[in-house]
Design brief:
Blueprint: H1 2-20, H2 25-46, H3 52-66, H4 72-75, H5 78-95, H6 102-128, H7 131-134, H8 137-163, E1 167-169, E2 173-177, H9 178-202, H10 213-244, H11 259-263, H12 266-280
Antiparallel strand pairs: 1-2
């Protein structure tokens, strides 16, 4: 528990430093590094054997480039690069048809696509809400996403320990309970509202189109759905771990595991909130 707490404190401090450079390429660089490390964790979990390393290398390059696709100099190559990656994967499968397990490759591609969409959603917010027009609203939405995920996780843990009796998905995650799931929804909504209130007080810019009661109701609705999606991402990552026969995806965060162990609840939350904000506020 002590190790987990120290890791969390250090992680939050590093997050604060990265966010200080949000409007520079430091942000995209850090997100790209995290995404590639997470992709490597998927590769190590799947172990697609001969030819798999080359496919991982192609996916890693593609993932890193996509995190900078908001730049005009990079954006125009993303489409041809996508086609090139798919052709490259096909060639690797053909060349190693006797040794390469395509089921593992397909798993790596599917999970990798989810991871890419998750981290790309964070970068997309930077360009969806430019500072010239929306102030620091992009930062606010990113903290909102993290709040939905980690607030839900913490509330689920505390509620589950205090009141948990009915198992949620015992075959995948024996410790998760229905009571904890309810607590997660409440925790996500509550933390989302708190983050919104704090940002509304300290912000000198515009909170999307102005902080109103409707804004709070929208955030609460997004938080409730995001909490459910966070649990889905967590259970999905746990199911894959069980099938791969591993306890954790990595060891980069002492006491927490790897990138995927720490960010699994973000898998579906980040893209959902990004799209939800775009639709709800007419961006």
């Amino acid at each position: 528990m002590k190790t987990r707490l120290i890791t969390s404190v250090v992680g939050l401090a590093l997050l604060a430093v990265v966010m200080m450079f949000f409007h520079t390429l430091v942000f995209e660089t850090v997100v790209a590094i995290l995404a590639v490390i997470g992709l490597h964790e998927i590769y190590m979990a799947m172990k697609p054997e001969q030819g798999g390393l080359a496919i991982f290398g192609g996916m890693a390059v593609y993932t890193a480039v996509m995190m900078f696709s908001g730049l005009p100099a990079v954006g125009f190559i993303t489409q041809p690069l996508t086609v090139l990656l798919l052709v490259f994967v096909a060639c690797c499968v053909i060349r190693n048809s006797r040794t390469l397990d395509f089921k593992k490759v397909a798993g790596m591609l599917t999970f990798g696509a989810m991871l890419l969409l998750c981290f790309y959603s964070l970068v997309e917010l930077k360009y969806l809400l430019p500072v010239e027009k929306y102030g620091s609203d992009a930062l606010y939405i990113i903290f909102l996403i993290l709040g939905f995920a980690w607030g839900g996780d913490s509330a689920a843990y505390l509620t589950g320990r205090a009141f948990g009796k009915h198992k949620l998905a015992p075959a995948v995650s024996p410790n998760k309970t229905v009571e904890g799931a309810v607590g997660a929804v409440v925790g996500s909504v509550a933390l989302g509202a708190i983050i919104t209130a704090i940002y509304g007080v300290i912000s000198q810019g515009q909170v999307i189109h102005g902080l109103t009661l409707q804004h709070y109701l929208t955030i609460c609705l997004l938080g409730a759905v995001a909490s459910v999606l966070g649990m889905l991402g967590d259970l999905f990552a746990s199911a894959v771990k069980r099938q791969c026969g591993i306890k954790d995806y990595g060891y980069i965060f002492p006491g927490h595991g790897g990138i995927l162990d720490r960010f699994d609840s973000l898998l579906f939350i980040a893209p959902f909130v990004t799209v939800g904000v775009e639709i709800a506020f007419g961006l």
